[in-house]
Amino acid sequence: MVKEQNTEDRIVDAAKKVFINKGMDGARMQEIANEAGINKALLHYYFRTKNKLFEKVFSLVFGDVLHVIEQAVTKETDFEQFLENFIRQYIRLLKNKPFIPQFVIHELNRKPERIVAQIQSKNVIKEQMFSIIERAVEKKEIRPIQPVHLVTNILALCIFPFVAKPMVKGLALDDDEKKYKQYINERPDEVVAFVKQAVLLR
Amino acid sequence: MVKEQNTEDRIVDAAKKVFINKGMDGARMQEIANEAGINKALLHYYFRTKNKLFEKVFSLVFGDVLHVIEQAVTKETDFEQFLENFIRQYIRLLKNKPFIPQFVIHELNRKPERIVAQIQSKNVIKEQMFSIIERAVEKKEIRPIQPVHLVTNILALCIFPFVAKPMVKGLALDDDEKKYKQYINERPDEVVAFVKQAVLLR
DNA sequence: GTCTATAACCGGATAGAC
DNA sequence: GTCTATCCGGTTATAGAC
Question: Is the CB of B97 under 7 A from strand D?
């Protein structure tokens, strides 16, 4: 977005790119330096260790994820509108940054304590989503379902096609990139329809 | 399962354990050797390089995954039975080996070409699943839906709670292991009900 | 086949000049 | 702030005795 960046930002951007694609263990400081157009020593000058640089990147990325979800959540309180908006917005985001979920999931599994350190805005999001669902159940707009399950179902349907891309593409779509693109384009309608059918009372 | 194992099998078992938990990049030959109760040199005697050992492990694990799915698929041809069996069997399996999907997904993303090398039984599974679904659509047992979407929806609903455990537990369940266990126990009924609602024509 | 010892290498981190 | 050169620990891989 920005043209002229200071060194620190260039490093962070480069680090994001490399860490997201290779993970903490697979990433190389040399590669990050190359990506940023500087040399290794300078990385250490700005962020003393690889680990510190990684933590910085992870908290930024995870913060973004939470922020986007929060945005999508706090817009609507009507259930059907919320469902539509959330699913479409979230999948659109994933189309632009398809490697983020795999990165976040992998690094959270590697070090699950991380989640605790990161949970500031968590409760806002959780309470908001849960209350939308609970209200919809009370109003008999949807069948009785526990909020945790509905939320994870929705996230699963949105995220899985991206994290499991090689499997979906290889096992079901003849390893054909065009078919995969097409499939991804169909997902928003498909997921919205699927969830609505599953929970809306008609 | 077996008590007395030869060295090669002990190595492979140890390697599975370590690679599945740490991934290719995070795993250490020393740790595998310790786990197998031998020394590093012997690893190289049996499998010349770390990479060769990893490839062996990956193809075994991925083969198992495909095999289990194949089993679940080829049992029933009636749609509703297939749905029930598949979901319940698959989640039961994941409860026993919760780290497999994250491992497979991560390593496939690291090297997507892998999938091509591994696709022997692929088509049997795919054709079988797809034809069960297509027949159900024709018979008006379920609403019209593309097989790819239904299959990925089902897999997503089964797998996601395991690969995203830290997120589900941390963001939605107060980071409480008991609540997570409880949540996982509810999944089979929840997923079966969700999918049936979503597709069955009543 | 299995071990100990060690070579060879790689990658994160530091020293020090500019 | 940025660079080149270098160190040093850890990890894969090999040599060679048993």
Answer: no
